[in-house]
UniProtKB/TrEMBL annotation:
Naturally occurring in which organism (per UniProt): Phascolarctos cinereus (Koala)
Keywords, in A-Z order: ANK repeat, Cell projection, Cilium, Metal-binding, Repeat, Zinc, Zinc-finger
Comp. bias intervals (Basic and acidic residues): 371-389
Protein name: Ankyrin repeat and MYND domain-containing protein 2
Any one GO CC term of the record: cilium
SUPFAM superfamilies: Ankyrin repeat, HIT/MYND zinc finger-like
Molecular function terms from GO: enzyme binding; zinc ion binding
Matches recorded under SMART domains: ANK
Main location: other
């Protein structure tokens, strides 16, 4: 079939563009199977079906078109827009990521010299900008696995490119998680490999800052990972407990409230050491962190994560207290106030958590009591006033605060509630009470109660 010309569409290709707009997956599939449909056909503006699908935010369509061989880097559009640019303009993060994974070139510019990231930023689609800026194609690392110029050997041993790429593309920037990833990989977890890796990270960081389309986000991320690697080396060479010592230091909470002071200071120091002091991103970070007292919110970790990954709100989703992994659902069975991915994460944290577990338990019980009072109050309200019973779960952490409008409580009711609660609490802790050691705790992570 001849290469597609702008605006020369068969009847079925015209239909294809129409059904893509309607989001009709079935019809799209049928038409893509037709011999009269070219997947990279061009409408009168030079837009391919993939560009249409990306611009309209139709994820299923984009996937299907790519499966059928759509060219993600087609650049026939009259203003030089690519599918990635359309994805960024649409504000759909998933489609933006899909285009990148399909090999979309991030450096291509449109007819007025703007990249996809710049265009997305121009229309205020900052989530898409973050996705584009955080994306680091494997080739970027692979470049260093071949000797360049007069080098006798490559800066990065090829076997390290894979594990390093995994780390670079992570969205969980928790220092403990990164150290865990290093520790898990025998190729990485030694001084020489870590040295090579951090130097490559530093080189990529420099490149990100010096390229025409400067990428501060990726530069900061590379610098941050480099700092962690350098600290790993320090612990590997100077400490008997090696990287476990680093993890312990990162997790150790202070006496008063268990806040991990070393971790906070370490992340602040990483940010401060970013070598390009004039960048907007660095100045923003410093402005957000500098006035915050150690132990208050926001933590340096949350500020950095938000700047780099665009993730906001550590409230709705549950993150592992140890490693920051999303979707953690195992709760400490004593205090019910901390959540972990699994028993391993709990064991790692226990040496410091045990000092505050009881205090947290008291906090939890107070919250429970408040919640129970609130529930009773709701039940006692006349039927027509009742709100729909969304979640009567007593262990839900997001119980509404006591409504100040109903502050007065019947003291006898309160006493009864309290008594009932104390009984319940003693049931929960029996067997795990006393001076619980690691052994006692080891088997006691349990599923978060639904
Ligand atoms: Zn974890
Ligand atoms: Zn606990």
């Amino acid at each position: 079939m001849a290469p597609p010309k702008k605006g020369e569409l068969t009847q079925e290709e015209k239909e294809l563009l129409e059904v893509i707009g309607q989001g009709n997956v079935q019809e799209t599939g049928r038409l893509l199977g037709s011999k009269n449909v070219r997947v990279n056909c061009l409408d009168e503006h030079g837009m391919t079906p993939l560009m249409h699908a990306a611009y309209k935010g139709k994820m299923d369509m984009c996937r299907m078109l790519l499966r059928h061989g759509a060219n993600v880097n087609c650049n026939e559009h009259e203003h030089g827009y690519t599918a990635l640019m359309f994805a960024g303009l649409s504000g759909n993060k998933e489609i933006t990521r899909l285009m990148l994974e399909a090999g979309a070139d991030t450096d291509v510019v449109n007819s007025v010299g703007r990249t996809a990231a710049q265009m997305a930023a121009f229309v205020g689609q900052h989530d898409c900008v973050t996705v584009i800026n955080n994306f680091c194609p494997r080739e970027r690392l692979d470049y260093y696995t071949k000797p360049q110029g007069l080098e006798k050997e490559p800066r990065l041993p090829p076997k390290l490119a894979g594990p390093l790429h995994k780390m670079v593309t992570t969205t969980n920037l928790h220092p403990v998680k990164i150290v865990m990833l290093v520790k898990e990989n025998p190729l990485l977890a030694e001084e020489d490999a870590l040295k090579k890796c951090y130097r490559v990270m530093d080189l990529i960081c420099e490149k990100c800052m010096k390229q025409r389309d400067m990428n501060e986000v990726l530069a900061m991320k590379m610098h941050y990972i480099s700092c962690i690697f350098q600290k790993c080396i320090k612990f590997l060479t100077e400490r008997e407990d090696k990287m476990d010592g680093f993890i312990k230091s990162l997790l150790k909470g202070r006496e008063t409230d268990g806040f991990p002071v070393y971790q906070e200071k370490f992340i602040r120091e990483c940010i401060r050491k970013f070598p390009y002091c004039e960048t907007t991103l660095l100045q923003q970070l410093v402005r957000s962190i500098a006035p915050v007292e150690i132990g208050s919110d926001p933590t340096a970790f949350s500020v950095l994560t938000q700047a780099i990954t665009g993730q906001v709100g550590f409230v709705d989703v549950e993150f592992c207290t140890t490693c920051g992994e999303k979707g953690a659902n195992k709760r400490c069975s004593v205090c019910k106030m901390v959540i972990y991915c699994n028993q391993d994460c709990q064991k790692i944290h226990w040496f410091t958590h045990k000092k505050v577990c009881k205090v947290l338990k008291a906090v939890y019980e107070k919250q429970e009591l408040e919640a129970a009072k609130e529930k009773k109050r709701q039940e006692e309200r006349p039927a027509q006033e009742k709100e729909p019973d969304v979640d009567s779960n007593p262990s839900n952490e997001e119980q509404p605060e006591t409504d100040p409008g109903h502050a007065e409580e019947d003291p006898t009711d309160l006493a009864q509630e309290e008594k009932a609660h104390v009984e319940e609490a003693s049931q929960i802790t029996s067997g795990a009470g006393g001076d619980t050691g690691l052994q006692g705790m080891a088997g006691s992570v349990k599923e978060a109660e639904e």
